[in-house]
Amino acid sequence: MSKSQLIYVVDDEPAIRDILESVLSDEGYPAITCQNSEVFYDQLEKQTPDLVLLDIWLPGTDGMAILSTLRETHPDLPVIMMSGHAGIDAAVNAIKKGAVDFMEKPLQLEILLDKIAVVLSNKPPEKKKDLASDTQMEVARIINPIIPSGAIQLKDSDRPQRTLKNNVVLNGKGLLTGRNTGVILSPLDSNSGIIFQTLDETSLPAHITNIENFDQSVAKQSFSANSTVLARDNRKVRTVEHLLAALSMAGITNVLAKVDEEIPNIDGSANHFTELINEAGVQDQDGAVKDAVVLEPIQVGRKKIDEKHLYVEPFDGFEVKMRVDYASPIGEQKLTFNSEKDSFESDIAPARSFNTFENIDIAQKTGTVGSGYLDSHIIMHDGKVINTELRYPDEFVRHKILDLIGDLYLLGYPLRGRVVANMTSHGYNQALVQKLHVAMTT
Asked: Which residues form the Response regulatory domain (predicted)?
C-alpha cells in the first residue's frame, strides 16, 4: 500500500541517493533525490515534501546552513540529518537547530525506516519515564521525619586516619560554569576533616550543614538536586561529589582542597580524582577513624518501586544497593557495590554523569549549567547514546552509586551500614545524610 508521503533525499554521494531512493520506493514512499542545495531549493519551490533526509557535508551550501534556512521558511518540515564524518558537536548542533534526529553513516536502513515511520505518523511521542536530572531544581521530601533514638552511633574503627603524602594539582573545566578551573589537594593534620577552601581563603568543611541553602532545606524538609554545592559567607564550591567519593573510598579523612568556586571536571567520572590520589600517595596518621555505625533503619521516601527512595540499615561493612529504571537506552539496572569485595577504582570511579540532550539544552538556555556539560556527560537522545561509547553496559547505575558515595561523605564520617536506593538524586541523598546527622547529634 502506498504511503504517498514525499521524501527529499539531499546527499552528494550518488550511491547513497540511489540506495535511499530504491529503499524508500520499496516501502511506498515517493522520493526525490538532490545532489546539492541548488537542486534541493529548486525542488522545494515546486513542492514541499513531508520529510527531508539531509546530509551535513554538501558542496557549496552545507546541510547545516540548509537546516537553518528551513527552520525559518518551513518551520514545521521535519528534517533528519545524516553524516559519516561528524561528531557530537555536529549532532548536538543539528538537534539544537531543529532537526528531529541525526543518523550516522553508514546508515542502518531498518533503523532509518523506523524513524521515518515515526516522524511521518504524526503520533504524539511516547511518554517516557522521568530521568533524574541534576540540571533541575528537583526536591526530595522527607515523608517520615521521625528518627529512631540511638539509630546512629560513632565508634572507633581499627583503621588509622589518613591524609595525602604530597600536594597535587588538577586542572579542568567547571561542569556548571564551563570555565577553566583547578583544585590543589594538600595534606592536613589528624582530626582536621575534609576542608574546601576558596581562593580568598574562606573555608568550607565538607559537611551536610554547609550545603547550599541548608537551613531553608531543613525548614521545608526538601533538598535541591542541583548537584552538591557547599556555601558559606557568599562563597561557593560546586560539584564536590565525585571528589568526595574518591576521598571516601581511599580512606582519606583529612585533606585541604583549594579551589576557585568549582571542582574541575574532566569526563564526568571520578577517574581523574582516583588518579590524583594515587599520584599524591596516602599517609597513615595518628588516631583511629570513627565510623558512623547504623543501628536502626533510617529512610527517606516511600518504599515503592515506582518512587524514589533510599534507606540505611545495619550491616557489618559498607554496601550500596542501587536500582534505576529510566527510558531507553537505560531501562532497569541494578547493582550492589561492597567496599571490601569490589573495587571502587575499576568498578565505580570510571562511570560518567549522564543526561538527555533535551534536559541539557533547556538548562543551558536558562543559564543553569555551562558548556562543561557537553564534554562531560553521556548524552542521550531519542533512545540512544549520541556522543560516546559506554564504559560498562550498566554505566548509568554505577554512576548513581558514585554520586551517592560522594554525598554520604558529607556526614563527616565513614558510614558502616547498607544503603538501599531506588532512582535517587542528589536531593534524596542529601536528605538522608541530614537525617543521619540529626540521629548522630540528638
From this structure: 6-120
DSSP letters along 106-140, please? SP-HHHHHHHHHHHHHTPPPPP------TTS--B-
Answer yes or no: do 276 and 167 share one domain.
yes
Residue 168 located in a structural domain: yes
Across 34-48, average pLDDT? 95
Give CA–CA dist 327/227, Å, rounded: 21
pLDDT at 366: 54
The answer to whether residues 307 and 384 belong to one domain is: yes
Q: How many domains does the chain have?
A: 2
- CATH code assigned at 27: 3.40.50.2300
Q: For strand 194-197 and strand 255-259, is the pairing parallel, antiparallel, or unpaired?
A: parallel
For residues 171 and 195, the answer to whether their CB atoms sit within 8 Å is: no
Instruction: Give the up-direction half-sphere exposure of residue 319: CA atoms within 13 A in the CB hemisphere.
Output: 13
Let me know whether 233 and 301 are in one domain.
yes
Gap between the Cα atoms of 332 and 320, Å rounded: 17
pTM flag (> 0.90): no
Q: Decide if 145 is inside a domain.
A: no
d(CA 34, CA 281): 62
Residue from 60, 285, 299, 66 nearest 191 by CA: 285
Q: State which residues form the domain around 201.
A: 152-441
Do the Cβ atoms of 186 and 255 come closer than 8 Å? Answer: yes
Among 207, 242, 272, 426, the one annotated catalytic: 426
pLDDT in tens, 55-86: 998 999 999 999 999 989 998 899 999 987 65
Q: Is the pLDDT of residue 368 over 70?
A: no
3-state secondary structure (DSSP) of residue 18:
helix
Annotation says 437 is catalytic: no
Q: Tell me: the pLDDT tens digits for 165-174?
A: 999 999 987 7
Q: What pLDDT sits at residue 226? A: 66
